[in-house]
Amino acid sequence: MPEGANAILVGRRRREQPAGPRAASGARGSRPLAALAVVFTLAQLALVRPVLGLGWDEIVYVSQVTSHHPAAFFSAPRSRGVSLLVAPVASWSSSVPLLRVYLALLSGIALYLALRCWRGLFPIRVLVVGGALFASLWVTLFYGPQAMPNYWVAIGALISVGCFLRARAGRSSPRVLWGIAAGAALMAWMRPTDAVYVAVPLLVLALVRRHARLLFVLMAGLAAGAVPWVIEAYAGFGGLGERLAEASRIQGGLGWQIAVDDQLRSLGGRALCRPCTGPMPTPLVTLWWFALPVLAGLGLAVAVRAGRAGRTLVPLACAATAALPYLFMIGYAAPRFLQPAYALLAIPVADALWYLVRTPRGTWRPVAAAVVALCLAGHLAAQLAVVHGAVSRNIDSRRDWDRTADALHRIGVRPPCLLTGHEAIPVGYYTGCSSGATSGNNENITVAGILRTADRLPVAHLAPAGGTPPRYARSWPVHRISGLDVRVAPGP
Question: Model pTM?
Answer without folding.
Answer: 0.93
